[in-house]
């Protein structure tokens, strides 16, 4: 059986008429209080349903913007430091390059040590290569024997220290002779980078 639509609408219209009649019986202050209370409830409902989620979203977006700004500032600082890092790396690049073949490196070490000996004024008596291994690393060493004054020896040690192949004196033996010269024997080594 189908409900009668007129009965249904009539019941609702009767309720509305009853509410309107009650509204008319209220005093002006009561009506005003009901309107204000109803408006507050509607405003609270709008706040809960729409405005609070929007405020949360706005705070989240502000946080994301702050984080992005911080990342941008960090990237800017890093990019400004890039040039100085590149300059520093360029000055040390020769030390970081991997070694060539052991034979080529030995030739370079012999050449540089011989040049340093001649520039220091030392008399070269003997220059011969030694090869050695230390664990997983390969070390190229040369033995240098010569005669010099103490100042020339110090000059040679300084020159070896300043060479670009990162050579180091691993053994040093100095004997004095009668003519104010010293007879020197040293082992100069280089660690090969792979």
Structure description:
- The model has no long low-confidence stretch (mean pLDDT 80).
- The termini are far apart.
- The chain is of the alpha+beta class and 194 residues long.
- It folds into two domains: 1-96, no CATH class; 102-191, Ribosomal protein S6/Translation elongation factor EF1B (Alpha-Beta Plaits), CATH 3.30.70.60.
- 63% of the residues lie in helices and 22% in strands.
- The longest helix has 69 residues, at 28-96.
Question: Please, how many domains?
Answer: 2
Number of H- or I-type helical stretches: 4
Strand tally is 4
**Beta-strand residue percentage:** 15-25%
- Shape descriptor reads rod-shaped
**SSE ordering:** HHHEEHEE
- Mean pLDDT across all residues, rounded? 80
Name a few traits of the molecule.
4 helices, Alpha-Beta Plaits, alpha+beta, rod-shaped, 194 residues, 4 strands, 4-stranded antiparallel beta sheet, 2 domains
Task: Chart the SSEs and their pairings.
Elements: H1 5-25, H2 28-96, H3 102-120, E1 123-134, E2 137-148, H4 150-162, E3 168-176, E4 182-191
Antiparallel strand pairs: 1-2, 2-4, 3-4
Helix pairs in contact: 3-4
Quick summary:
Helices cover 63% and strands 22% of the residues.
């Amino acid at each position: 059986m189908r409900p009668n639509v007129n009965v249904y609408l009539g019941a609702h219209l009767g309720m509305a008429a009853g509410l309107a009649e009650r509204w008319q019986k209220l005093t002006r202050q009561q009506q005003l209080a009901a309107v204000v209370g109803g408006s507050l409830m509607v405003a609270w409902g709008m706040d809960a349903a729409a405005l609070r989620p929007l405020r949360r979203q706005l705070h989240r977006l502000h946080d994301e913007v702050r984080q992005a700004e911080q990342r941008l500032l960090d990237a800017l600082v890093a990019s400004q430091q890039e040039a100085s890092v590149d300059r520093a790396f360029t000055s040390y690049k020769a030390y970081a390059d991997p070694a060539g073949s052991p034979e080529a490196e030995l030739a370079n070490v012999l050449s540089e040590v011989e040049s340093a000996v001649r520039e220091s004024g030392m008399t070269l008596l003997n220059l011969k290569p030694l090869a050695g291994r230390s664990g997983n690393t390969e070390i190229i060493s040369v033995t240098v024997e010569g005669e010099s004054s103490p100042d020339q020896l110090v000059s040679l040690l300084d020159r070896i220290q300043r060479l670009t192949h990162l050579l180091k004196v691993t053994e040093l033996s100095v004997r004095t002779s009668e003519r104010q010269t010293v007879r020197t024997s040293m082992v100069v080594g280089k660690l090969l980078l792979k």
